[in-house]
Structures are given as structure tokens and as C-alpha cells.
Amino acid sequence: MNYELFQLINNLAGTYTWLDISMILIVKYLAGCFAALLLLLLGLGIYYKDKTLLKTSIHTVVFLGIILITHSIIGFIVQEPRPFIAHTVHLLIPHAADSSFPSTHAMAMTAIALPIFATYKRLGSILLTGTIVTGFAKVFVGHHYPLDIIMGILITYLLFKISQNYISSIIDKMLHHPKYNIFRLLVNIKQCVQLIKKSKTPVTNQFNIRG
């Protein structure tokens, strides 16, 4: 059933040029857009001193790290050949012949989408939709079986539900603890950078550094 569904999707490749190009662009760039968005949200949380946004961003970064480690462990244990290794497929983008299960894109993008969805429903919904579309595209270009995508999303979801409250409570403590207040530290770093930029005296002269 897994291979039959793969064939059904992958055989669409080559039918329409615009569809091939769209799927290739999605596979190549959408995950990078997710990462850029995460960095943007983190930066905005610091700049506007928005604790909710900062907490969500830090939670996402931490959870993404957990998922990437989990993916590496599963990929090491489960050596599933990619479709283009085991079968003749429409391979639109070259790819390393590593383990196919589970999908890195599916797990990483879901790991970014879920913590954001937990706080910002509209943005999170867009990200989850983008994750599903990317999963479809990865099958379309011949990189993954559908089960690689489905299980990647499912594993990430289960780990999120298990770890959500624990990670959230740790971040809350770190953001509010007077000694280990990350939010205050980040804001202080930002203020220091602004003071240096506003200063009319070159930094080298402030510290009497001579060439």
C-alpha cells in the first residue's frame, strides 16, 4: 500500500512542467523559509520585549533540537532505502542515498509548526499546511514514501504532546528567574548594541586600542 501510494503521487511528475517546478521549489526552499521565520520571531520577541513571542520561539528552538536528535537516532536504527534506491522512480532532485524513514523535512517542519500553533493559531495553521504540502512534494520528487512523511509528522506530534508542558515550565522559570533571566539578558545585549551604535566615539578609541 505504501509503495502503491508512492507510485500514484510520483507518477504525476513529468505531467505538467509548472507542477514539477512548483514541487521542486517547495522541496528546496520552504523548509528554509520556516527556519528564517523562526529566527525572525525570536528577533521580534527580543526587540519588542514580548515574553509570549520569546517564550514560543525558545520553545520551538528547543523542541526542534530534540526532534533532530530523535530523527538521527531513528534513522540510525531503521535503515529504510529511499524509493529511488529500491525502485525505478521519477527523481526530480538528486538526493543522498541515506535512510528514508522518517522524513527530516516532515519532522523538522512539524517541530516548528506545532509550538507556534499552540500560541498563534493562524500562523501555526499556515505552517502546518506548508508542512503537509512539503511532505507531498517530497513524495512527488521521489525522495520519500508517504509513510515516511506520515510517521514523521505523527512521531513529532506525539513527542510534542509529551514534552510540551515540561519544556514550557522550564522556559517560564528561566524567563522569570531573577538570576537566570534570559529575557533580561537578551534585552541587555540589545541595549548594549544600541549604545555602541549611538556612540559617536569609535569603539577602538573608547578602549584606547591602537593599531
Automatic annotation (TrEMBL):
<keyword id="KW-0472">Membrane</keyword>
<feature type="transmembrane region" description="Helical">
    <location>
        <begin position="60"/>
        <end position="79"/>
    </location>
</feature>
<keyword id="KW-0812">Transmembrane</keyword>
<protein>
    <submittedName>
        <fullName>Phosphatase PAP2 family protein</fullName>
    </submittedName>
</protein>
<dbReference type="InterPro" id="IPR036938">
    <property type="entry name" value="PAP2/HPO_sf"/>
</dbReference>
<feature type="transmembrane region" description="Helical">
    <location>
        <begin position="26"/>
        <end position="48"/>
    </location>
</feature>
<feature type="transmembrane region" description="Helical">
    <location>
        <begin position="149"/>
        <end position="167"/>
    </location>
</feature>
<feature type="domain" description="Phosphatidic acid phosphatase type 2/haloperoxidase">
    <location>
        <begin position="56"/>
        <end position="164"/>
    </location>
</feature>
<dbReference type="InterPro" id="IPR000326">
    <property type="entry name" value="PAP2/HPO"/>
</dbReference>
<keyword id="KW-1133">Transmembrane helix</keyword>
<dbReference type="Pfam" id="PF01569">
    <property type="entry name" value="PAP2"/>
</dbReference>
<feature type="transmembrane region" description="Helical">
    <location>
        <begin position="125"/>
        <end position="143"/>
    </location>
</feature>
